[in-house]
């Protein structure tokens, strides 16, 4: 019986079990997953390839520690746009700023909410004055400095 269903694809409980292992450790060998799921390594490989093809798995990556690379400040910013129709233009400019690691179109007070890494307060000021404030359509920003990240995780997959 499918756990998640769509006209394009179905995800069953075995897919969810495989995803649960992969989201905890993307480097786990398929054979180890296969042993834990009582199926063949080839079956795990086929299911993972199908999950990639239908877009459930969006790839894998190594996560670089911003702190170890000299970026000690993690900042969230709400961005106020002069007009909503300037969103696409603003996002293209924001995407070109390497210190911005996330960008969200939001409801509520802000039009856009971004996550930024800066080396220090001076670098943050430079990002604000030399990059963000020069983007057409951005009226103002509101900045929130993260004092500590307690955890970061993938969406939990129930088996």
Key features of this structure:
33% helix; elongated; Arc Repressor Mutant, subunit A; Alpha-Beta Plaits; two-stranded antiparallel ribbon; alpha+beta; 159 residues
What does the model show?
By secondary structure, the protein is of the alpha+beta class. It has two domains: 4-53, Orthogonal Bundle (Arc Repressor Mutant, subunit A); 67-146, Lrp/AsnC effector binding domain/regulation of amino acid metabolism (RAM) domain (Alpha-Beta Plaits, 2-Layer Sandwich), CATH 3.30.70.920. The chain is 33% helix and 22% strand. It contains five helices and six strands. The protein has helices at residues 13-24, 30-37, 41-53, 87-95, 121-131; strands at residues 4-5, 10-11, 73-81, 100-105, 112-118, 138-146. The strands form two sheets. A four-stranded antiparallel sheet has the order 4-5-3-6. The protein has a two-stranded antiparallel sheet with strand order 1-2. A hairpin with a 6-residue loop joins β4 (100-105) and β5. α2 packs across α3. The chain is elongated. The model has no long low-confidence stretch (mean pLDDT 92).
What's the CATH architecture name of the largest domain?
A: 2-Layer Sandwich
For the secondary structure, the number of strands is 6
* CATH top level class name of the largest domain: Alpha Beta
Calculate the terminal CA-CA distance, rounded to whole Å: 14 Å
Largest sheet: 4 strands, antiparallel
H/E element string?
EEHHHEHEEHE
Q: How many separate domains make up the residues?
A: 2
Q: List the uncertain runs.
A: none
Share in helix: 25-40%
Structural class given helices, strands, pairing? alpha+beta
Instruction: Please list the strands of the largest sheet in the order they lie side by side.
Output: 4-5-3-6
Beta fraction of the residues?
A: 15-25%
Number of helix segments?
5
The 3D shape can be described as elongated
CATH homologous superfamily classification of the largest domain: Lrp/AsnC effector binding domain/regulation of amino acid metabolism (RAM) domain
- C-alpha Rg, in Å? 20 Å
